């Protein structure tokens, strides 16, 4: 049987206020994060001039929603971007926002008006399984209630974080992905790079007619690619993902201000046991250290 997953039990948060229920305090980390941070050393104490968003780091489901799900607890866990709280949450950035509810409750990285099967309230997961029991998918009223409770507070916090300090250079939206593309992904069965950088462009970071404006310049994206390659990672640009809602939505405004937004996906194979989502603390610690060093390098280059 598989061993316990590090990071599986996420700490509870104060839920008296909606904001507190959505923005996860960063003073509490999973056991894997604590081990990683204990083994990792920072090069400089200066805060990084970035806002970091981590929208898919939780597997928590409110008790009122749990009975409606067709998925097992193990299947729900598969929707978590494992390692993102530990890797991106460890960054000493100007602001770090962590979601504390599963993307199956509400997907913070979707347009709030998107109501298809993979929209803001998904009804099919990335393995093609039905999320809800027959007749239990939320109706319009319940969807709006979820948006009010779980979606809008996160985005309000993100907007405020981006506005509060003019020295902030950009937004980093942190994700992780399986080493092999799952069935419902754009690249089913394909092996993926260590790092995927996305700016809503083509595979060179250039804008396309279909996708519209990019969220950062080619220069910034190339600089980021070089930084991660210098840290020993293989890097892909805009493949398999070109950028989700958070990066595309906020990036357009930021680009007009001379700032940027980039979605970063890190390959879970870097820190998990082969073929599982079980985090190996020592491997995670090494990844955390390399990512921290890369971001410190990036802050000096842009």
Give an overview in words.
The protein has helices spanning 18-22, 31-39, 73-77, 84-88, 140-163, 218-230, 245-256, 281-301; strands spanning 48-54, 93-98, 170-177, 195-198, 235-237, 260-267. It has 302 residues and is of the alpha/beta class. It has a domain at 18-62 and 81-103 and 168-301: 3-Layer(aba) Sandwich (Aminopeptidase), CATH 3.40.630. It has a 6-stranded mixed sheet, sandwiched between helices. It is globular. The chain starts with 17 loop residues before the first helix and ends with a helix.
Low-confidence runs (pLDDT<50, min 5 residues)?
1-42
Rg over CA atoms, rounded to whole Å, is 18 Å
Strand order of the largest sheet: 2-1-3-6-4-5
Structural class: alpha/beta
Oligomeric state of shown chains: single chain
**What's the CATH architecture name of the domain at 18-62 and 81-103 and 168-301?**
3-Layer(aba) Sandwich
N/C terminus separation: 47 Å
- The shape is globular
Helix-strand sequence: HHEHHEHEEHEHEH
CATH topology group of the domain at 18-62 and 81-103 and 168-301: Aminopeptidase
Give the number of helices: 8
The percent range for helix content is 25-40%
The total strand number stands at: 6
Q: What is the averaged pLDDT score? A: 87
CATH class placement of the domain at 18-62 and 81-103 and 168-301: Alpha Beta
User: How large a portion of the residues is in β-strands, by DSSP E?
Assistant: 5-15%
> How would a crystallographer describe the biggest sheet?
6 strands, mixed
């Amino acid at each position: 049987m598989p061993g316990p997953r590090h990071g599986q039990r996420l700490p509870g948060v104060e839920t008296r206020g909606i904001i507190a229920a959505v923005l996860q305090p960063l003073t509490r980390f999973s056991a894997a994060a604590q081990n990683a941070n204990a083994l990792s050393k920072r090069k400089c104490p200066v805060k990084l001039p970035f806002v970091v968003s981590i929208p898919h780091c939780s597997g928590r489901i409110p008790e009122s929603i749990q009975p409606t799900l067709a998925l097992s607890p193990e299947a729900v866990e598969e929707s978590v971007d494992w390692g993102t709280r530990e890797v991106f949450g460890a960054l000493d950035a100007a602001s770090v926002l962590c979601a504390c509810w599963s993307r199956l409750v509400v997907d913070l990285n979707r347009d709030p008006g998107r109501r298809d099967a993979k929209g803001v309230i998904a009804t099919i997961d990335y393995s093609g399984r039905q999320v809800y029991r027959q007749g239990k998918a939320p109706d319009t009223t319940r969807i709006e209630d979820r948006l009010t409770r779980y979606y809008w507070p996160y985005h309000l916090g993100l907007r405020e974080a981006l506005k509060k300090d003019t020295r902030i250079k950009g937004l980093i939206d942190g994700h992780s992905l399986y080493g092999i593309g799952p069935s419902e992904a754009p690249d089913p069965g394909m092996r993926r790079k260590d790092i995927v950088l996305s700016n809503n462009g083509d595979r060179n970071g250039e804008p396309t007619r279909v996708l519209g404006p990019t969220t950062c310049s080619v220069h910034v994206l190339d600089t980021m690619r070089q930084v991660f390659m210098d840290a020993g990672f293989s890097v892909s640009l805009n493949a398999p993902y070109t950028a989700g809602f958070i990066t595309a939505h906020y990036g357009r405004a930021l680009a007009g201000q001379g700032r940027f937004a980039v979605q970063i996906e890190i390959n879970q194979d870097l820190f998990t046991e082969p073929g599982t989502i079980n985090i190996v603390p020592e491997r995670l610690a090494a990844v955390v250290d390399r990512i921290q060093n890369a971001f410190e390098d990036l802050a000096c280059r842009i």
